[in-house]
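Researcher: Structure for this, please.
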Amino acid sequence: MSHTRLLLLLAVTSPAVASAAEKWADDKLPVTTGLELWFDASRLNQAGAVAPGTKLDRWPDASGNGRHLKQANPDARPMALRVGDSWAVRFDGKDDHFRITGLDRTLDAVTVFLVAAPHGNPGAFTAFCAANAKGGRDYETGFCIDQGPWATPIFSQLNVEGHGFGGARSLLTSSSPFGTLNVLEAVIDPNKKSVRLVVDGKPNGERPFAPGPLRLDEFTLGARYYTNGPGPQEVRGWMAGDVAEVLVYGRVLTDAEAGRVREYLTAKHAELKRLLPGTLPNAGGTPLKPIPDPPPVQMFVPGFTVRELPVDLTNINNVRYREDGKLVALAYDGNVYLLSDTDGDGLEDKAELFWDNKGRLRSPIGMALTPPGYKHGRGLFVAAKGKCSLIVDTDNDGVADKEIIVAEGWKELPHGVDALGVAIDPKDGSVYFGLGTTNFTNAYLTDKDGKAHYRLDDERGTVLKVSPDFKKREIFCTGIRFPVSIAFNREGHLFCTDQEGATWLPNGNPFDELLHLQKGRHYGFPPRHPRHLPNVIDEPSTYDYGPQHQSTCGLVFNEPVNGGPVFGPTTWRGDALVCGYSRGKLYRTKLVKTPDGYVATNQILACLNMLPVDCCVSLKGDLVVACHSGGPDWGSGPAGKGKLYKIHYDGKELPQPIAIWPAGPDEVRVAFDRPLDPAKLRNLTEQTTLMSGAHVRAGDEFESLRPGYDTVRMQLAAPRRELKVRTAQVMPDGRTLLLSTDPQRDAAYYALKLPGLGRPPLTKGPTAKGGVLPQHPRIDLDYALTGVLANWEGGGKTWTGWLPHIDLDVSRALTANLPTHAELWKNLNTPGKLTLKTQLDLSNMLRPAVQPGSKLDYTLPPEEVIVRFVGSAIILAARGPAGELAGFSNETMHYAALVHTPKPGELVPVEIEVETRPSPRSRLLSVEWFTKEDEGIRPLAPHRMLVPWAVKGAQAEAAAKRSIPELDGGSWARGRKVFFGEPAGCAKCHTVHGQGGGIGPDLSNLVHRDYHSVLRDIAEPSYAINPDYIAYRVDLNDGRT
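Model: Predicted structure, C-alpha cell format:
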C-alpha cells in the first residue's frame, strides 16, 4: 500500500485558554497559550511504560487539562510504533480510533496541529480527526478533517468542513505521492470569515466561513463521528495511518507563532520522516499507467489476429452460428439479421433481415437457435420484455414469418431489462429463460413498515423451465439477479452468468458470477436474512469475476459448430467463453467436473475498447464478438451503432502459454505448449514486469472502460506494487520459463507482462476495411498464490512442486499438458508417499461477502465447516491447526475430516500424506466440504487453497522480515573469498557488483533470491538455463572452433 508521511497543521479560531502542561510534556513546544488538547507519541513512555507494538487503550493528554483519549474496545485500539528513536501511533483503517467525550467546550476559534502519515485514501471521508456536539454530527456542530469522498492514488484531497463551512470541499491544490511528508496548515478564521490551507508554507485553497460556535464536546482521532440520515451518530471513516503529534488550541495563532510551532514539529519529527517509509512494505506503490489509444481488441496471448466485420448495424445483443454457416445476429432493437461472407475472405460482409421486428420484441437479451430439423421450423428463441418468444421461418424462404409465444403473463419491470437469457435443453427440448429480480434496489421488497414481501414462489429473480410443448412452466431455481446469458455445456449441465448487485444490497451478489444452475437451489440474490429470508442456503458461485463491476454478460461454451474446430488451441475445448461488458473483457473459464460439482479457473483473453456483450464460435473455429458503442453500464442502447469483431487463431506455430503458477516464495513459472525460441528470449528479464495488488489483473493498462462506481475508484487507488524480476531462465524441457522475483507472499493477485515471443510488431496508422487490427507485441498473464505444495518420495526418487488443487483428479486435469508435471503423474502409480501442504480459506463458505465499507443490520451465527479428504489411497497422516485429524476407512475408501470454525482473515494450515501404489485406482485423493447448517456436499474452489508461504494483509509485513536459519552463523567475508578464489573459481564466469567474468549471468541480485533456489542453481546448474547465456563459441589456439 502507498503511504504519505503527513505533517498537518490546522487552525480554527476561539478564545484563548491557558493551562499548565503536564510535567512529562515536551518543554520545547514554543506556544502553550490556549492549549486545549496535546497528544504526543514521543512522550508515551514518559506518561507510562509502553512497549513497541502495544495496543493502546488510552493516549494521555499532555496539555494539563486531563482530557485523555480512550479506547475501551480491544479490537479497535491503535498500536504504539517505534521507529528508530521516534514514536508514532498506528491506526489500521478498519476500526482503530480514539475518542474523548464530556468536554463541554464551545470554541469560537481552534488551532489544530497534526503530525500524521496516512497510508492511502480509499475514499468515504477517511479522517484524521473530528469534533462534535454531544449527539451531533461533526460537520454540522463542530469540524472534521478528512480525505474527501473519492478514492485517490496519491495525496491530493484534504476536506476541511464544519459548522459555518458545510459541504465537502478539498482545499488542497497541490499533490504528492503517498509517502511524502508535508506541513499543512488550515486556518478557520472568524475575523477574516474564511478557511484557508497552507502547504509547506505556500498558500493553497480557501473557502468562505460564516462564523459561529464550534462545539468541542467530543473529539475523535483517526476517524469521524456522524450519521447521514436518521439514527444515532456513529464513528466511521477510519483512517489507515500513523499519527505522531496532535495540538489543539483555542485560538488562531499569529504568523510568527505558527511558524515557530511548524519549526518545532518539523525538527522534532525529522527522524520519523526519514525512517517511517521503511516500516511500510507497500510504500511508494506504482501507479497504473494506461496505454494511450489502446487497440480495439488486444489479445493477451500470441497467435491471434483480429478483424472487424465490414457491416453497418445497430448494437447487436446476441450472435450465434447456424449449422449452415450463417451468422445470426439479434439486434438490441429486436431486428434479427443473417450475415454471410460473399467474397470468401472469411469475413461476413452481407447482412440480410431475417426478422423485421416492428416493435414486437422489446429489449431482447438472450437468444438460442432452434436445433436442426426442429418441428416448429428454423429460427431462434428470444427472451424479451414481457415474453419469451420463438421466431421461426415456416416456409424455408430465409425470412422469419411467425412468432410463437413460449411464455408470458408476468408483470413487466419498469426498466428496460425484464426476461433475459435463454437456452434449449439438448436432451428433450425444454426451454430455460430468466426473469430479472423485481427490484434490485430493494431486493427483499420491504415496505415502509420494514415488512418483506419477497417470496420464493414468485417467478421474479428465477430461471424458469418451460416444457417442450410450451404448455407448462416451473421455477427451476431462485436467487437470480439478472442472468444475461444461459447455456448448456457438453455434459448437459446448465450454466448462466449473473450480475453483481452489492452496490445496492451489501451482500447481494458481491461479484459478477458464473453459476452452475441446479434445480431447487437458491443463488444468493437476495441472500439469506434472519428476518426477511431465513430458510434458504445461498449457493456459492462456480466462479467470481473480479475486481468488482465487470458485468458478465455473454456466455458460450467452446465447442465445435457442425464438426468444425474449436476456438484457439484444442486444449481450450469445452471452456466457457465469457464477455465482461462494463470493462471490456473477454474471459476463458476452464471447468473441471467432479462428483460434487464443478471447479473453475480463469484466464483473461483480451481487453476491448468497446462493450463486449456476446460471442460465439464459427464453423471455422473463429470467435465473433459483438460489441456495443457507448459507455458502461448499458452503452448507447437500441439505436446506437455496434461493431462485430472476428478473432482468428492463425499463429499456431507460436508458443502458447498454458499455465502460470507460484513455484516458490520468490519464483513464478510459465509453461508453454511448445519449445521456446532462444533467440526470442534475449534480454527477457529487462522486458518482463510483475505487479501485485488486491485488484491487479493481467493487462490492466489496456482497460479504457470503467463504470462510475466508487468501488472502482477505490480499486484504482489501491496499492499496486512492482516486484523486481531478478532472473529469467528456461528449464531443460525447453517449454517452461522460471522467473526469480522479489518475495511473493501477499495473498493478492499478480500480473505478469512478458515480451511477445514472436508476436508481430505494433502497426501504426489507419487499418484498411477488413484488415488486421493492430495489437501490442506482449503477453499478459495473471495468477494468485493459490495451490498446494506437493512432495513425492519413493524408490530413491523425489518430485517437489506445485499443484492447483488437493483433489488429484482436478490437478491432473489442470496440469495435463505441463512438462514439469508428467513425472509426478507417472510416479503416483509406483510405491511411495505423497505429501500435500496448503492453507485453507474457510471464510464465508455459505455466506456471500459484504461490500467493502458496508455493514449488515444483522449477524449470522459463526459457520462450522467440515472439510473431508477422501480417496482410495491410504491416508498415512492428516494434520490441521490443532494436530492430527480424525479419520476412518472402509473396504475401498479412506477418510480424514477437518472440523473448524474460521476466524475472519484466518488461513488454516493443512498437511495430508497418502500412500501411492502401482495398482491403478480412481479418485486417489479428493476433497469435499459441507457445513453444520447445510450438509450438501460441494467441491472446494481453487481460490480456497493457498500455498504455504502466502499470508494475508498485515502479516505480509512480518513475513518480509523473515529470518533464514540456513544462513545463521554464515560469514560474508568467507563467502566472498570462496567466490573470487580457488578452487571454486566462480568469478571466472560470473560478476558480482562489477567484479568478475562476463561469460555467465551477473549474480549481483542473489541477495534478492530465496535461499533454496540459489542452492538448487549451484547443486544443479542445468536445472534451468538463462536465455541470455545459452551458448558460447570457443575458439582454440590451434584454430579449431
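Researcher: Any notable elements?
Model: The longest strand covers residues 597-608. The two ends are 54 Å apart (CA to CA).
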